[in-house]
């Protein structure tokens, strides 16, 4: 008899005979069961019996660790067939659990729903309507909201689930949007972001649900800056999804919102909270727009609202995050002026080396003397970015031997700052992703240094950077 089988047998027997008087150390038994179940790929024994035991505990008022019980349930569900799960947890059980108002019960029902196979098996059961009402209820426990979020993440790829949410419950979603209350709105935005990523056809897209009008943006900005920033973050999520999918058909509905948000940023003197609290959110938003396939949209925003030029208070920021291809096409003179090798301009320089054309512009400035004049941590910040691109690595390998030597030995100066240690390790790991013919003579020294980083310091220190023992990976 395996250890997992034996432990689960003990667990089931205790629940069957001792509910109401559980023995001391029962939490420990649950934890042992959880650990054992997590190590197997097929359930050892009768899953239904264990699932019923867990259900019995969930319905009891025992003084046990319910978080641990839910972890055990999750482990069991992951290695149990869905039809076997439904033998222990019926539709009526799941509905009753979701309506119980008891957080562990609701979470357990969500975990069962998450195992649906196929993923849309329960789409027409009415359970998703209950989940939506729970999700938008401000009194729902955060732990439950997180579990429902996980349910969306796992199941929204199914057409039937999306249809249940978007078609059958669109009225509820629009009501939440129209009510414009901060907490439900934040949850709606998160849900819409998940849905948008999984849309398969333009016919699923509901413009008046996914898009916000300017008056709504202004209302949010005037009454609740957090809500406004959540909307900006939401739009960034949509733009990110467009870049990763074929959802460019949605762009024509989003463009006016891009201009509305950009216009409000341009009018920031009227809305000081935009800069005080939202600069990073807005810059992320602008960055995503600059990376759209058609640079014309960002060009219009730049000319009308952003004004990337000498004297702009955010010029250094723009040069640090805007698509370098756009900067190469329209602001080459600014690259030449501001992309210099110095600690103060590192964010700009890191952005420029991420594109081959802008890299070629700044390459004459990337001399060994200029790079080594910076402090070692700053060198690593630059090299961490350069090591991600083959054209930069080729330049380092063939043209900057002093920089490569500094990366590997640093004149044997101890490195104790954790961030610098981590950055240096990333640089070496990134470079080792390239073929030996790319790294040329530096391939073996880099491999040796990587081994030393992972297995200890070479006592002879023939070619090693002396890293404090506490930070060896």
TrEMBL record:
<keyword id="KW-0143">Chaperone</keyword>
<dbReference type="InterPro" id="IPR040752">
    <property type="entry name" value="HSM3_C"/>
</dbReference>
<protein>
    <recommendedName>
        <fullName>DNA mismatch repair protein HSM3</fullName>
    </recommendedName>
</protein>
<dbReference type="Pfam" id="PF18795">
    <property type="entry name" value="HSM3_N"/>
</dbReference>
<dbReference type="GO" id="GO:0005634">
    <property type="term" value="C:nucleus"/>
</dbReference>
<dbReference type="GO" id="GO:0006298">
    <property type="term" value="P:mismatch repair"/>
</dbReference>
<keyword id="KW-0227">DNA damage</keyword>
<feature type="domain" description="DNA mismatch repair protein HSM3 C-terminal">
    <location>
        <begin position="297"/>
        <end position="472"/>
    </location>
</feature>
<dbReference type="GO" id="GO:0044183">
    <property type="term" value="F:protein folding chaperone"/>
</dbReference>
<comment type="function">
    <text>Involved in DNA mismatch repair in slow-growing cells. Acts as a chaperone during the assembly of the 26S proteasome, specifically of the base subcomplex of the 19S regulatory complex (RC).</text>
</comment>
<dbReference type="InterPro" id="IPR041335">
    <property type="entry name" value="HSM3_N"/>
</dbReference>
<keyword id="KW-0963">Cytoplasm</keyword>
<feature type="domain" description="DNA mismatch repair protein HSM3 N-terminal">
    <location>
        <begin position="6"/>
        <end position="240"/>
    </location>
</feature>
<comment type="similarity">
    <text>Belongs to the proteasome subunit S5B/HSM3 family.</text>
</comment>
<dbReference type="GO" id="GO:0005829">
    <property type="term" value="C:cytosol"/>
</dbReference>
<dbReference type="Pfam" id="PF18794">
    <property type="entry name" value="HSM3_C"/>
</dbReference>
<keyword id="KW-0234">DNA repair</keyword>
<dbReference type="GO" id="GO:0070682">
    <property type="term" value="P:proteasome regulatory particle assembly"/>
</dbReference>
